[in-house]
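[Automated response] Your request has been received and processed.

Submitted sequence:
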Amino acid sequence: MDIILVPGFWLDSTSWSQVTPPLVAAGHRVHPLTLPGLEAVDASRAGIGLRQHIDAVVAAIDALDPLDGPVVLVGHSGGGAIIHGAVDARPERVQRAVYVDSGPLGEGGVINDELPVDGDDVPLPPWDVFDEPDLVDLDDDLRAAFRARAVPQPRRVASDRQQLHDERRYDVPATVIACEFSSAMLAELIAAGHPYVAELARIRDVEYVDLPTGHWPQFTRPAELGAAILAAVDRAA
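Generated structure:
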């Protein structure tokens, strides 16, 4: 099966490198993406917004042979909003959407318009900007490695409003790999009708997998994340 991996903010395709081995070993074709503006620190990010990132994922779907069957989309953090936009654009081509410490972003929502900006960029902020649950298991060495590889995020990706059009997106099964917030906490939010999970609550088939760690499991628990994604893909198959 074809698996398209969409990184979260500040990260490129190589951020999945420790996660993909079990997927490849199982015979799947993996396609980790570097989204527009994330090619290099000195790349231009002017004019790149949420739609351009969604379109890049849609283009990756369209480049695959439909005869090979539907694809699985995996999105980490802000990548969850991006893959949800791609599900909306190509619901008939997606077998399952896997949200890694993330979830689907509904119509009119933004990923995070509170991050500090610098012109067209959202640089990786100082660690004290993040909440402690974000940073669980991200030790000093991992933080240094993350900061060394970080590329500024295009500003508009963080602040553009999600635009959705096809309610067939709710028929595409989803897996939520819950790290920073447990599945029990998400269930409580859904039961309370919290707007943060309103779009997730509308998906008809959702499974939850707990992987307790901070917000970057591809760095803090990569083997376990790879196994969790593989299990979700196997269920999709």
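Summary generated for your ticket: The mean pLDDT is 97. Residues 76 and 124 are 16 Å apart (CA to CA).
If you did not submit this request, please reply to this message.
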